[in-house]
Amino acid sequence: MLKGIIFDMDGVLINTEPLHYRVWKKTFQQKGLEIEYENYKGCIGSTVGYLLDLIQKHYGVDFHDDLELVPLQRKNKAEMIAKEGFPKIPGVPQMLERVHEGGFLMAVASSSPEVYINQVIEMLGVKDYFQVLCSGENVKNPKPAPDVFLKAAKELGLSVDECLVIEDSTNGCRAAKAAGMVCLGYDNPDSGDQDLSIADGVIDDYEKLDAGFLQGIYDMSCKSKQNRIE
């Protein structure tokens, strides 16, 4: 029985993926390294540590022990947000209200730092809809590992088969399925060329997304799984 909806944040609740790339590009430029989007995009939906692994792999430079890097990135990000504001996704508050009215428990499970998750949720004015906010910085393994979704389900007091995840990235969809959860992909063109084929369904806007729609995706997934078992 579907009881909980777990939302990724970046690219799902707020349109921050293009901003993140610009921030990191500027940050690495300040460190003397020019990065390309093709080498960056593999980290979308994952953590800073995963990005640094990719940077080391593609450029042969190890920033893991650079204590200046993350504070510099956060400074650049704060400056861009102060100048440009948060990049919103149309219809998000209304969609969250509809899902909330459906009686579901709701959580955010994001690879972003905890302080940033709280900042975004406050800015959107939707904090009261969520019982749980989970950050990837508080689990052992980042997406595409399932850790952050498993933690969100546990904190909601639900089993994995009572949850549905909404994700916009390849890494996020893989993490949701690795957790044993139903996954709805959100096709956000600003999140780059993401493969959402592993998801149980895909949408490209929030106009029709409500409790009934989510229940339908969940029921369809459960029926498909049962047919495969039989």
Summarize the structure.
This protein has 230 residues and is an alpha/beta fold. It is 46% helix and 12% strand. The radius of gyration is 17 Å and the shape is globular.
Topology (elements, then pairings):
Elements lengths: L3 E4 L9 H14 L6 H4 L7 H12 L9 H16 L7 H10 L3 E6 L3 H11 L7 E4 L11 H10 L6 E5 L2 H9 L3 E5 L14 E3 L7 H19 L1
Parallel strand pairs: 1-2, 1-4, 2-3, 4-5, 5-6
Helix pairs in contact: 1-4
Please state the average pLDDT score: 93
Return the structural class: alpha/beta
Q: SSE order, as H and E?
A: EHHHHHEHEHEHEEH
Our Rg estimate from Cα atoms comes to: 17 Å
Q: What fraction strand?
A: 5-15%
Strand arrangement, largest sheet? 3-2-1-4-5-6
E-strand count: 6
What is the quaternary state of this protein? single chain
Q: Indicate the overall shape.
A: globular
Please count the helical segments. Answer: 9
What are the segments in which pLDDT stays under 50 over at least 5 consecutive residues? none
Helical fraction:
40-55%
User: Main sheet?
Assistant: 6 strands, parallel
Distance between the termini: 20 Å
Give a description of the structure.
The chain is of the alpha/beta class. It contains 9 helices and 6 strands; from the N terminus they run E-H-H-H-H-H-E-H-E-H-E-H-E-E-H. It has a 6-stranded parallel beta sheet, sandwiched between helices. The longest helix is centred in the C-terminal third of the chain and has 19 residues, at 211-229. The two termini are 20 Å apart. The model has no long low-confidence stretch (mean pLDDT 93).
